[in-house]
Specification:
With about 1050 residues, this protein is an alpha/beta fold. It has 37 helices and 31 strands. Helix 10 packs parallel to helix 12 and helix 11 packs antiparallel against helix 12. InterPro entries: GH, GH_1_N_CS, Glyco_hydro_1.
Amino acid sequence: MLNHPSPPTRKCLLLSLLLLVCACNKATCFLGEGKKIWKQANTDHFNQSFFHDTFPSGFLWGSGTSAFQTEGAWDKEGKGPSIWDHYIHTTVRNNLSTETADVASDSYARWEEDVEALKYLGVTSYSFSLSWPRLFPDGNATGLPNPAAVEHYNRLIERLLEKKIEPIITLYHWDLPQLLQELYGGWKNDTLVGLFEQYAAFCFHAFGSRVRYWLTMHNPYLVAVQGYGTGLHAPGETGGPAGSLTVAHNLIRAHAKAWHTYNTHFRPAQKGKVSIVLGSHWVEPQRGAATAANVELCQQSIEAVLGWFANPIFGDGDYPLSLKIKYGALLPRFSPEEKLWVQRTADFFALSFGPNNLRLGRSVVQYGQTVTPDLRRILGWIKLEYGDPSVLVTEGGWFTEASVGKEDTVVIYLTKRFINQVLQAIKLDAVQVIGYSAWSLVDGFEWNYGFSVRRGLFYIDFSQSNRPRTPKTSAQYYRRVISANGFPSDETANDIKGRFPCEFHWGIADSTLQVHSYPFSPQFTDPQVYSWNVTGDGSLRPVPGMKMHNRRAQCTDYLAIWGHLRLFASTGASHYRFALNWSLLLPQGDLSNVNTEALRYYRCVLTELKKLNLKPVVILYYPTHRAPNLGIPGPLHASGGWLNYSTVDAFQKYAGLCYQQLGSWVTYWITINEPNRLVDFYFSGKEKHQAAHNLLLAHAKAWRLYEREHFSQQRALVSLALHADWAKPANPFLDSHTAAAQRFLLFELGRFLDPLLGTSYEEKHSNVDYPQEMKAYLKERARVMGHPGSPLSSFTKAEREELRGSLSFIALNHFTTRLVSPYPRTQSNSQQKEAPDHGCLILTDPTWSSSSLGQAVVPWGLRKLLNWVSQRYGGALPIIVTASGVDDQAPVEDKLRQHFLRSYLQEALKARQLDKVNLQGFYVWKLQDGHAPQFGLFTSTDHKSKAKASIAVYNKIITLGGFPEDETMQTCRLSELYEPCSVCAWMFKNKAILVFGGCILITAVMLATLVIFVIHTKTNQTKVRGRGVKRRRKREGVPVCLCPHLKC
């Protein structure tokens, strides 16, 4: 029977319960409301994906270790064996049987180096565990302790305090003395509840005067489930649910007993706080559907892990109802007295949130829902479920494979994510988080994974006997966060005020324009004449024997054009970018078969745009990125496509046809859209470079043709458009990552722009060729791989001349920013995917907001990109962002796209106004959705082409000309667009006189007209009367002789 106070009668117990409920404070009145977290609308997630602010003063920044994983010295200076020592010495574990923790990180001997590592980080707390079998080899704390162990922990605590680092001590982190396992069966036996209380009392007495924070045990869920249920952890017992439930029950009671011991005997003098570290995963409703059923399953999933232990301690003193239903009689019961005794036996909530629980969440307690590493949400759940307790995150972090070594780039971003989620929980959700401990301080023995995975901020080479501690890049990052006390706002992120110039392109970009050549009216195909049966049934009936010639369709008869351009015009945009269909216009790839109807349709589109005073930007070749033809005519593709030089000549002839037939209406031409993406669809590196080479030559030939034969008359500008995402070094602490990001940009952009423009670092157009850095890298790569030479083709002298300067403006399609790192080299080359030619690996930052298709929304990347291009190629040529957008699944209220437009255009304005980039246009991708909501500003025709909310945002920015101080409409004077007109100026100045004179002139003209009309009328009347007299005289004249004339 547990040794704790019990009320004398059940009546007293009920009275106590009633008083407890009635006297609940603000916190406890809100117990059990965790389900609300899934019902809360997750609005404006793009603004909260990363939060800039600092942590409260006094926030506990820390790191942590556990004794078994790091101390080593497993049998030195009187230490007894633990269940983990026994387990790893006797159990074969997935080829790890030779790995032990006998030395581990050797922190027992090198604890001073650990303290120096803490000092390097700048932490204010250190969470470590005491080794029960080191202090008491037989586990019995009623005997004498091991003096060497006591002295070791005293030295460590004193040094920490000397360095102004708060010790946070865990009494039990899984290393139960082996003798207690052998004598009692470990935690299955409730005898350990009393033994643990005695051990805890000794620790409180020996060290408590210098310790403010105590943790009784670490993540008891894993002890119960992995240690005694599945057998994956020591002691390796496979008791199933029954064994796990019994062990968990004893662990909870052991914790409560230790807490009561401290509360009664030590708190008055030491004034410390005691809690228990509970681990958890997090789940979101399946497919984001927060139905009542899914919410209930999510709640059950968290209750099955965190609630199992937290509900008795922080809740009502009992297990969650869902566990009682699930396990029935298997689940041990708390007596009414025990419920009161266990309840509220923690002074703060200590949370472990790491890979161990998340792995289990995905495999054991998922409940059909989606497991996600969202620390903010679990903190919010704790607040709602357990009455807003103070929370200490005692374990936060991730792991890497041992082969990663010191360059743990992925851990940097997961650390960033977890810490920022804590900040959001504090600032946005008002959760009382008092500290965060990054796990772990140094690499150690990772339980059943041995040394195959690493979790330390400091790298340890376990092959060296002195176990040197080397900070990983994640340690450098964590140090930077601690130094800044979080994530203070970046001044460059602040919005600015200003306007774009009047001639700025406010555009919308589309892909290939679909040709609907069938006119709307039947008059173009039906020659029959009809009569209308008005008095009968009102039907139209053909008139027999009568046919009419069909009228040729007019541009206004194509309602598809009218409807499409009506949508476009309603946005307020001034420029429309669309593509022609090469395969449709020239099915055979040459001029032998020209589709005149398609050509006429495009001409109609252009003429209608002109009527609306809208400017077209026309793409000649828009690769489809789909088999079989990639958007080029079938015969050309069959003959090798862009690997065959004949396609270059064919493209020039196609361009000439378009210039001749459509050029009168086009002010901007784009020869090829995103050739840098097209080459990705070729298999080998050699093919990719050959295709890129020919695409460059095709563009240059088309540009030169326009310059020679059409520019003098049509005056359009010609370019090619490149996909241009910004590249950020994934690891800011490694030069190799900086080099990789630069190399990525050269392969993506420099490969196409350098041969056309040269660079601003050289004499203008003096050396048109592929980037020298790119050439050197490919040459060295070929040497290392044993290839005969670089895969890059060389330009002839004539080709160089044709390429030089063949670009009228720089067109960039920008959507996102990429994290770039060098492609990792592993020993298993046979299984490794061949690295791309640029040798870069693309990553993403999980703290960046992203769309449902995974596109990261990174506004500042646009400004970085524009500056890079401007600096490399000079500011003479205008730069136009010819496509930019984001997918948004919202049918109408597309908040993510609204945020995208505002923020990206803000960065565009900064680039132009602050950085003096010659930016002259921004085109939103795209006008209308296909079948499902994605990038369109309008819904699909299937959904009646409804305008989305982002159109109003874009239209307002266009109307204001940007982001002016006073938000008044931008008025562009004629002098900004055209040559000054002196006559127009005089007319405007004397408009009152002109109006008055006009009125007089109109009046005079009207009077003159009236006089002329009167005179003309009287003259006509006089003439009419004269003709009437003559007619009467004829009728009334001399008699006529009717007899024959007689000769005399």
